[in-house]
């Protein structure tokens, strides 16, 4: 996996997506129309025919056209026929909608209210008072903001209402009344005609407005009964809440959404569980968070920070004022204990302590004055409330991160076998009783109460190829899983120099030695060349000394090896290791350039053969080997992959957890680096603005002071890497894009497809390979269930449908090319199929071709002997983005003075650190300090350059030499500056040289800045140097 170089991340100005961009996108739209017209025909001849797209080489704008309607998604080419036919049930319930249109009104509330809950309370009161008179007996539905819908016209076009609402938060004896002016005005008739045309199979755009209105109608009553969280609805009455620990409990709920499918309109219902805060006295909640006695001891600084983070934003009610239960939202926690707090009580700034004030005004004696106070209100007027005088208001979802114990408890509560999931879904539909829903009746909507019955097919598993020296050279997986017994990896890697570091205090040195020897033996059995003895004895260290310990092992091994390099580090971690794993990976991969394999303590003590085999597979891939390949790939029998050089991309963007409003998002793109096997992948990651879904660095151009206009980006680099690895340029592109919601389909497709085209054209103006763009979704809520749970021939051991089950009819889109594929065997709970939506297809795949390819690729995941639930390139991209988040040192985003790069929207994004070159497997990267503008061959002397610049020159070994794991040629490295010239021939010398150089020039440039440049790669030199 490669890291983007922070230095090569220029400012790219781009107008907002919805601004007028006619001139900039005129050529793009012409090309789009050509391709849409061309797609109406099917493939003919030996290979795909694609017109060359005229893309400007140095167009810095990769913007999206203002109109999304200029692009149509790929139509379904037909239905798949491959596989064994069967019936499954889906959690979709058919909805019947009215033929008449719906009236749309605007709502304006004065004074303006931002709370949807308060807005709804105001409108509920308005309907209660005026339905029989001014509203003409109409029962409207309201979205909580500015939109009101009715099944027919109201008796007026515009009308004002005065609504007085009581604020019961002050208690029964001290209520406040607030007056609101509500203006309702007619806007338009919302037509249902386009929705009816879509359901009839006509090629029209999805009518999102009509779907939104129906969704609001069906949620109106449910939102009054349950706690609404997005599209989810929760209640403690659905199932008794279960304690999760730390003051949290799980609430059961359900997801509800309207979707157009081939059967008509569907109501999708799925079960869910999430964490809510227990309605406890705040002091008891604090005791549970800290898991310690807080009633007699003061809080430490670290405890106070932890409590402050957990309580910020939580709503509480006071308990010291009898019937008055006023509610507040917590804004902070005092740094002083309650007994030390004083505040001004009048305009003369007379001070009084909190303890005295509560005693005098409320007659309340504060018992736990050693604890801090809650801060409520705004910064200008802060109020103090003792912990013991407050209780948490019920029904608040916990939005902070859960610890490992809480996650385990929540998973245990929410994990249900398929037949249990089906019963809960049907019970939820029964409890909601849509037949008696007054809002559904008003709008003429009815819901079926039976699960949809759907035709499905079970695709055959692919044959896998292993090494010829094993007893089983070829193998056909059964029910989505197999093992390594009697098999050897097809390409075994070599590990000559390794070490082990033990961070677990419960693992003795003898136990660690025994585990390492078992692991080494399993690697050898699996087909790897693995030296039995570590370079140095196993080193034990404390987790809080991770950086010091890693550097000690690294340099101790380097000293012992005398110029050779440590290749692998095995790390034994405690089961609950907190940030240790992330710290270790960051230090190894961005500072030391060291490949590592982590193992948890529980597996060290109880290491089964299956566990050791899985770890050996991971080590083999990390060290450059291949575990297995598809037999059809070796025999050139994969349709639309084996015929011409094909590169398969996977892309994903991961966002910070809920509640984090500053950390950048991480984008990752991986691409296959072998053909026709398509099992090896290279990857690139980059940081981009907070919660930005469009991948900003797919393609970019910028002006360099020395080199002029420079082109680069993730797609371009990976295309060059593919050519370097295979000797051929890709003639077909398949792009699996993960993590895109339906509302972002147009935006992502237009932006990223355009970036792919421009990246290709930047390499060669006439180079425009056909592209297939597929969105992969796992965060949907469709569940496929066995038609008969007692039929063991149609289910796996967990009771789930068989791996390879594919559905492309009935519950799929009425016109577009999508399908559901359950490619994995269930372990526990109910399996979730992956949803694949082919948005763009210039390769003209048939349904069978793309479904079979996707299913077969799921058997090539390198880290285990199971078929996986998501196609591997998308899976690898997700893992790469997740790993890259560890590279960001804790707290860097909170430092406003941190060096950062301006993103395309002007926001400040801190770049990720570059990986050390050894992590780039197989090929060295080209390292650059200041300037690099020359070419050199393997046997060439160090070139003459301007002595003002210091440059590290890295010679490249042949691909064959690296893949065989042997040094067959001499690697020349030269560091040139105005004082001296050095030539090194030992692989271990270059890192020491870089570090010495940094130390020598510390006065000229800060060490951190120089290190970031040393490990950075140049865009322009990729034509000469392959990267993986």
UniProtKB/TrEMBL annotation:
<dbReference type="InterPro" id="IPR045246">
    <property type="entry name" value="Piwi_ago-like"/>
</dbReference>
<dbReference type="GO" id="GO:0031047">
    <property type="term" value="P:regulatory ncRNA-mediated gene silencing"/>
</dbReference>
<keyword id="KW-0678">Repressor</keyword>
<dbReference type="InterPro" id="IPR012337">
    <property type="entry name" value="RNaseH-like_sf"/>
</dbReference>
<keyword id="KW-0810">Translation regulation</keyword>
<feature type="domain" description="PAZ">
    <location>
        <begin position="281"/>
        <end position="394"/>
    </location>
</feature>
<dbReference type="Pfam" id="PF16487">
    <property type="entry name" value="ArgoMid"/>
</dbReference>
<dbReference type="InterPro" id="IPR003165">
    <property type="entry name" value="Piwi"/>
</dbReference>
<dbReference type="InterPro" id="IPR032474">
    <property type="entry name" value="Argonaute_N"/>
</dbReference>
<dbReference type="GO" id="GO:0006417">
    <property type="term" value="P:regulation of translation"/>
</dbReference>
<dbReference type="InterPro" id="IPR036397">
    <property type="entry name" value="RNaseH_sf"/>
</dbReference>
<feature type="region of interest" description="Disordered">
    <location>
        <begin position="1004"/>
        <end position="1028"/>
    </location>
</feature>
<dbReference type="InterPro" id="IPR036085">
    <property type="entry name" value="PAZ_dom_sf"/>
</dbReference>
<dbReference type="Pfam" id="PF16488">
    <property type="entry name" value="ArgoL2"/>
</dbReference>
<dbReference type="InterPro" id="IPR032472">
    <property type="entry name" value="ArgoL2"/>
</dbReference>
<dbReference type="Pfam" id="PF08699">
    <property type="entry name" value="ArgoL1"/>
</dbReference>
<dbReference type="Pfam" id="PF02171">
    <property type="entry name" value="Piwi"/>
</dbReference>
<dbReference type="InterPro" id="IPR032473">
    <property type="entry name" value="Argonaute_Mid_dom"/>
</dbReference>
<dbReference type="Pfam" id="PF02170">
    <property type="entry name" value="PAZ"/>
</dbReference>
<dbReference type="GO" id="GO:1990904">
    <property type="term" value="C:ribonucleoprotein complex"/>
</dbReference>
<feature type="domain" description="Piwi">
    <location>
        <begin position="568"/>
        <end position="889"/>
    </location>
</feature>
<dbReference type="InterPro" id="IPR014811">
    <property type="entry name" value="ArgoL1"/>
</dbReference>
<dbReference type="GO" id="GO:0051607">
    <property type="term" value="P:defense response to virus"/>
</dbReference>
<dbReference type="GO" id="GO:0003723">
    <property type="term" value="F:RNA binding"/>
</dbReference>
<keyword id="KW-0943">RNA-mediated gene silencing</keyword>
<dbReference type="InterPro" id="IPR003100">
    <property type="entry name" value="PAZ_dom"/>
</dbReference>
<protein>
    <submittedName>
        <fullName>Uncharacterized protein</fullName>
    </submittedName>
</protein>
<keyword id="KW-0687">Ribonucleoprotein</keyword>
<dbReference type="Pfam" id="PF16486">
    <property type="entry name" value="ArgoN"/>
</dbReference>
<comment type="similarity">
    <text>Belongs to the argonaute family. Ago subfamily.</text>
</comment>
